[in-house]
Amino acid sequence: MSPQIPFRANLDDFLLSLARGDLLDAVGAHYASDARLYENDILVARDKRTVLRKLQPVLRRFAMVRGTFDELTCDRATGRVRFFCRIDGVDIDGRVVREEVFHAQVWSDGKVAEERQYRGDALARLFALNVAAPRRRGPLLVPSLPASAPAVMAARPLGA
User: Fold this and answer.
1) Distance in angstroms (rounded) separating the CA atoms of residues 48 and 113
2) How high is the pLDDT of residue 4?
3) Domain limits of the chain?
4) C-alpha span between 91 and 32 (Å, rounded)
5) pLDDT score for 128
6) CB-CB contact of 26 with 17 (8 Å)
7) For residue 141, what are the CA distances in angstroms to 73, 112, 158?
8) Widest CA span of the chain, in angstroms?
9) CB 14 within 8 A of CB 22
10) Cα 4 from Cα 159, distance rounded (Å)
11) What distance in Å separates the CA atoms of residue 53 and residue 91, rounded to the nearest whole number?
12) CATH number listed for the domain at residues 4-135+142-157
């Protein structure tokens, strides 16, 4: 069987877990044990266990989360995946919150080996690199990004 088929099946399963808001399953099933996570170009986790630990406050804060994706690009030959994700949720106080993240991942052996996320001002800097703001349809200008470009997340109450 081609190694491309498991890669895309694993990627689709990862994205479905995020869309359902099952962050623990997304990380638990699809991150390599030594996966590295960067936020705004800062290494925040050196392994899957640390990533799962970082998720705990998020899971305690939200009663419900769902993800919506735009601009998915993947290169099966290199294992590079990039996508923009909007995570809508309801926190334990009943506030509706939206977080926006641009993810850049490297997959190896069917698992996420590295994920970079950009948030807040870092997301704005990413767009300043000539990356168009996400649209409902059409390609993101990913080729202008450096190969190591991370993902971004900015939280704000909806309607703010």
Assistant:
1) 9
2) 53
3) 4-135+142-157
4) 29
5) 73
6) yes
7) 10, 22, 27
8) 49
9) no
10) 41
11) 19
12) 3.10.450.50
Query: Which residues pair with residue 39 across a beta bridge?
Result: 42, 117
Tokens describing residue 71: 């601009």
Angle at 25 between CA 39 and CA 7, to 5 degrees: 80
CA–CA separation, 115 and 99 (whole Å): 17
How many residues in total does the chain contain? 160
pLDDT in tens, the chain (160 residues): 445 558 889 999 999 999 998 999 999 999 999 999 999 999 999 999 999 999 999 888 888 889 998 889 999 899 999 999 998 999 999 999 998 899 999 999 999 999 999 887 787 777 776 555 555 444 333 334 444 444 433 344 444 4
Rounded to whole angstroms, how far apart are CA atoms 96 and 10?
30
